[in-house]
Amino acid sequence: MINSRIRMAGSVNAPIYKADIAGGALMLPESRRIARLLIDGIDGDEWRRKIERENILQKRSPSTAKRQANLIRSRLDLVDPGVWNIIADSPASIASQAVFAAAIQHSALFADFLPIVRDRFRVLQGDLPRRAWIDYVDRCHDIDPRMPHWKVSTVDKLGDAAFRMLHEVGFLTGGRLNILRPVEIDAAVIRALKAGRHHLALDRIQVSL
Predict the structure, then answer these.
(1) What CATH number is attached to the domain comprising 31?
(2) Number of Cβ within a 10 Å radius of residue 100
(3) What's the pLDDT tens digit per position in 88-118?
């Protein structure tokens, strides 16, 4: 289950598994705008002006805009500019896959849940019960003793985000049943991940294979 990036994280006394998906799901419209800022090389004072004063993410408060912008940027900073271009300019279904890949690169907690989802496809299970998430988080403590012991409400919130991302990219129908659906990852996304040597995302993104 653990990949080389995760082993490196554990070697510096930092938790492997963090609540780093609690701030939102894929946030495609916002991710498109942040990707465009990165492509244009906007940073520093200009970045803050775009996010906090111009409110390009269209949030109700500067603090919310700043928080979501920082989360999205922390994802996109981990992928190649070729992935940014797909997010900024491709149709929604393909751009969502590219954001999904960035979320995989960013969050070990989310990335290591995807093999469980893949196993459900492989054994022809028709759904993904929420219990699968709860049991997975419990097992994470065996792998990462530094991992916080989250409240039940936090585990539920993280599960909401994980399931929402799977729904937004098409692997789940959404709703109470959480029916699994196969999704073919677009060739352009695969090429961009290979070009950027994003091995973790390449390994995990093709969930329904």
Answers:
(1) 1.10.3540.10
(2) 28
(3) 999 999 999 999 999 999 999 999 999 999 9
